Amino acid sequence: MSAPTVVELSDWASALIADVEGRFFGNRSAVEQCVIAVLCRGHLLIEDLPGTGKTLLARSIATALGGRFKQVQCTPDLMPSDILGVSVYNPRTEGFVFKEGPIITNFLLVDEINRATPRTQSALLEAMAEGQVSVEGRTVRLPAPFILVATQSPAESEGTFPLPEVQKDRFFLTLTLGYPSPATERRILSGGAERSDRPAPESAGEPGRLIAMQETILSVHVAPSLARYIMAVVGRTRTDTRLAMGVSPRGSLALYKGAQALAAIRGRDYIVPEDVKEIAAAVLASRILLKAEHAGRGLTGAGYLSELFASVEVPGYKS
Amino acid sequence: MISAAGSRLTRARAVSLYLHPMIAVVVPFLFLSLVFEIVVTKLITVALLVVAVLPLLLLVVGAVEYLVGWWLGARRENGVAPLLRELLVILIIGALAILALMGAILSPLSGLTRPDFWVATIALFLQWLLTQSFRRRMRDHTLFIALFERREKAETPEVYREYGEEAADTLAALSWVRKRILFLLVVVLTALSVVMWGFGFVLSAAEVIATVAYVVVSLLAVRSLRTLAFEQLAFAEGAAWSPRQLTVAAAQAALLLVVVCLAAIPITTSHALLSAALLGRFLRWLASLLASLAPHGAPLPPLPPFQPPVAPTPMEEALRSLPAASPPAWTALLRAILQALGWGVLGAGALALLAFLLRPLLRLRWAAGGARRPAARAVRYLVELAQGFAARLRLLFAGGALRGKGFLHRHRVDGRGGAPESGARDPRGAEGGKEELRARLPLALFLRAFRRLVRWGDRIGVRFSPAYAPREYAGLLGKRVPEAEPLLAEIAAIFEEGLYSGRSLSDERLAAYFRAIGRVARMRSEKQ
Questions:
Q1: Which residues of A touch B (CB under 8 A)?
Q2: What is the CATH number of the domain that holds A132?
Q3: Helix, strand or coil for residue A173?
Q4: Is B444 near chain A, with CB under 8 Å?
Q5: For all residues of chain B together, what is the average pLDDT?
Q6: Size of interface A-B (CB pairs under 8 A)
Q7: How far apart are CA A205 and CA B390, in angstroms?
Q8: In whole angstroms, what is the distance from residue B172 CA to residue A52 CA?
Q9: Which domain holds residue B106?
Q10: Domain boundary at B255, B283, B311, which?
């Protein structure tokens, strides 16, 4: 079967976004960014205040995409084996049998990830980076696609364990939802109760289709000048004295792929500078670390990136 | 009846006539045949009589220059490397052709020491430079005229005023080319006059005919260039609303030029071959060489071993009795290593040069699915090359220039599908045609038009920053002038497609781009 075209991908993504918006409405850009992460085989961290719809969004995306979906609610006493799996003794066979953990799935929702201990958080690293887990000396491949969606609330600090930078870098993009607009909230109030009681609709997709779409992303053309533009942006973060840590090569790759995915969703088979700018905040903001004195003055990652993009020349205006 | 596509094609071909077949090959051929025949063969020693065939050599290498330049040039993108590649290919093939006609292909070192070889090679290089400068300038004119496609008659003066800067540039380019041709004409006539009367020579009838032919060809070229300049004036005055109206006249002038040039070829060829005996001698030498390479008789008996005619002297005896001095083993090893290194460097250099020269072949994409398959691409490229060349020859010799449907038309029908205006995605096929179109992307004009928008933005108070993405900038402008928003979005989309999509824009998209910028500029006048 031939890979889908960009136009087909765009149609597919529009249907998917519409499907998710049927359950999580009022924030199309957040839904679009979730789809971008999924298309780039990336993992997603949704970070916001409690009750803003983080879990609903993650569930809606997973439901719309089809495939196996599992959820883990993190608590401080959650052990790695609770996620990865454990060998249990079977008295009938007088041997140990490996019992898979919830991580053996297509979509894993890790709710309140910062409530888990660093030990448990680290257990996810291999799965996120390699698509496999090592348990009791054996390596288990995770099914394709494997997408991990984690949520965390930055407001509550008691009893939480902040994610280490290395793990944040593993997330393709970090999403902030914010409070809904008054119109959206009115809509939630009028139809929210019914919606929560409604059973999950039929899934709009299937994992095989998603994998084919992920292949299509790779065919999106990136002009050499735009690749240099991405490198220039990322390079600035590495030399800026206001930052304690710049963007890693993984971050620049994520920006490149994210722009490809965004272009494809918009029906283009080439990226434009606008794609890079649009996706940059979600991809890069969590990958930079502001020095304390600048963070203390109110500078945020998104604000810094906004300043950065205002100072880097877009290629192409000069022949 | 000429179709619109055919009309555009005819225009492109009419313009290209100044650039290659006739101006670049026949005119230097006519000129050099006379100069070499009169100056070189009569003033230099008889030993260099072979230079009488140099005009023929130049015709051969000029044809090579035409073919290589056309095909590589048509696929050329901006940059020094493609130009250098074209020059290298032309010089290599041209030098080989010259050496072959000199009979020195198998012993090139003897050919390289001859002054006539270098004269011909330098002439080839200068001819290429001249062609490049003509081609570059004429291209601006072609692109400028494309602005008038699908315009209403009443619109053309306004469009012409809007693009006054570009119009001035293209007129200057036409004038530049015309002046160069006139300059060459004066130089040639002066040189011939000096040679003829200063040294007391009298021209033969053939030489007079060739001179007259050269003058006629040059004047016709100048006349055709003037026709192109008048074309612009017709648009400026609103006397025409489509290039189609004027293309026929330009094409007829060009056709006349072709006919005269073709008629001049046999005259000058026979003139240049006055010393045809030399060519015959070369052919005989070639035949004997081939015969010696493939002997068909019985093998000769081996020669008896060499016997010294006299007995060795005591000194020779003493020398022979000495042990043979053998160099130490490490020197042999060192020599082998150095030789290997030398061959390695040479091989790597040769491979790099080959890769550089063959890059256009390797970069083509196979039409199906955009998959890259080098062997298939190369085959396809060669097939396209052969087909294109055959079609071009057929059109040229059948006088089909006025009816032809070349790559522009073919591409529009096959590659563009049905909705170029809607911005529908092109299929990944017809990559070769896109390469050709990409070579025609008027980048300078394209960017200049965008700068016009930037100037307009400045006037309405939206300052441009190079850090803005095109769409972002269009959005800012659209907020200031909401009625221009759809046009600005269209401009930004086409601008981005032209710059970042890695393929050329269709002429419909280009026309839409220029049209949209023109409309936005008119909104300015309503605002102010």
A1: 2, 5-7, 219, 221, 223, 225-226, 267-274, 277, 309-319
A2: 3.40.50.300
A3: strand
A4: yes
A5: 63
A6: 65
A7: 52
A8: 65
A9: 4-283
A10: B283
8 A C-beta contact, residue B277 and residue B248 = no
User: Does the predicted model carry a pTM greater than 0.90?
Assistant: no
DSSP state for residue A5 in the 8-state scheme:
P
Task: Examine the pLDDT at A189 and tell me if it is beyond 80.
Answer: no
* Coil vs helix vs strand at A312: coil
Count structural domains, chain A.
Answer: 2
Instruction: Please list every residue in chain A whose beta carbon sits closer than 8 Å to the beta carbon of residue B466.
Output: 313-314, 317
* Dihedral Cα B42, B47, B50, B51, nearest 10 deg: -50
Does residue A130 form part of some domain? yes
Owning domain of residue A72: 6-78+105-212
Least confident span in A116-125, B307-316, B345-354: B307-316
**What pLDDT score does B16 carry?**
47
Higher pLDDT, B208 or A162: A162
- Asked if B54 contacts B32 with a C-beta cutoff of 8 angstroms, the reply is yes
How far, in Å, are A26, A71, A111, A189, B507 from residue A195 at the CA level?
Answer: 15, 20, 21, 10, 51
B280–chain A Cβ distance below 8 A for any pair: no
B502/A270 CB distance under 8 A: yes
Terminal-residue alpha carbon distance, chain B: 45
**Do the domain assignments include residue B295?**
no
CB of B227 closer than 8 Å to CB of B253: yes
pLDDT at A147: 87
Strand-pair category, A69-73 with A107-111: parallel
